[in-house]
Amino acid sequence: MNNSMREYVEQLPIVDVHEHHLPEVLLEREINLLQLFQQSYAGWAQARPYCLPSESRDSDPMLAAAGPTTWEALAPFLEESGSNSFVRNLVRAVVELHGSGAPEITRDNWQSLDAAVRAAHRRPEWQREILKRARITTVITDAYNDPLLDPRPALGANYRSVMRTNSLALGWHPDSRDHNGSSAHELLQRVGLGADSFDEYLTSLEKLVDGMASRGQVALKNALAYDRDINFDEPNEPLARAAWGKAAPPLAERKAFGDFIVDHLCRIGAARDLPVQMHLGTGIIRSSHPLGVAGLIERHPRIRFLLMHLAYPWSRDLLGMAFVYRNIWLDLTWSFLLSPSHFKLALHEAIEVLPNETRMMLGGDNWHVEETYGAMQTARRLIAEVLEEKLASGYFNRATAERLARRILHENAREFFKLV
Ligand SMILES: [Zn+2]
Fold first, then answer.
1. Which of 308, 319, 195, 302 is nearest to 245 (CA)?
2. Does the predicted model carry a pTM greater than 0.90?
3. Residue 334 Cα to ligand 1 middle (Å)
4. Distance 140 CA to ligand 1 centre (A)
5. I need a labelling partner for 74 at 20 to 30 A (CA). Which of 187, 192, 294, 376 fits?
6. CA-CA distance, 409 to 333, in Å (whole number)?
7. What residues have their beta carbon closer than 5 A to ion ligand 1?
């Protein structure tokens, strides 16, 4: 066994714990090269697609149709943002999967790459072939536009989903919606549940959670860092009740309502041993520091929290929390796409600080399988490099490095989500 750590990590299967694989995007047969860039984090290099509290938008730019691919439309990604890590990741994946050996997308080869992308996506097998080539055995998708999606009929038996709870924490009025346009009251109606009073709302949420297993949903997903601050304070029930039924409750009541519902969902989840996956960092960056959720984590020691993205840029604060609170797991998703060099630094520290080897897992966080493929290639390379460095310094031995690699790539996720 004198193959390199890189070769060892390359061949391991991956359980991918976070994607935005949406049926309407993955099953669309007319996809071109420009769309791969627009519906990816490379697109975020051009424009942040979500709103800050001071902004508004009419529709989700990530779900907008792309025009025909032209060099003029591609150039802003490839030239103006050509040094950005998201762009580098996607370019590598596109040329590997669709190209004929050239390492970059250029004026000379973009048309043949565009034709290859369009031809590949017309084949229904494309998505499955690329997941297989990436050695991804299971995908947990976050269909933020349809929080009740059972992904299995449309996307395949190897898919599971999480239930986005943002709209539930904002559901004080039938007209209230989260930043993705979801309405708690519409979701409840879809499954035949009512919410004519605050108390009925609480009971209906419990029933909504009870339906998750039948929809292939394996965790609650809190992405409220895109809707509000994530300081989930001690529940204040009278103030939370005061928001009920109001179209525009005062900020304090809206916050109390959200805090109360987030707590309520944790109580429901704990009773059913359902984990909570939570977005931390970036989002509404003024108020998405990981310590904002420390109170929630303390109040719910029985909930297994899967905290995302290394809470970038506060990865060290998150690692400190994961050392103190033993109900925290780390979802490394996106952190290695955003900054490979910071990821390596943070992974070195995480290996040293985390109390045991069960704590880390990863996902792609992407709309198209090309970007997912690139994300997993990048993750494998960076994880192997960090493990090689640890081996070279004598930190641990090869058996430990291999065991940790297996844990990060698939074993931890299987245990955490109880996947069979
Ligand atoms: Zn995501």
1. 195
2. yes
3. 8
4. 11
5. 376
6. 11
7. 365
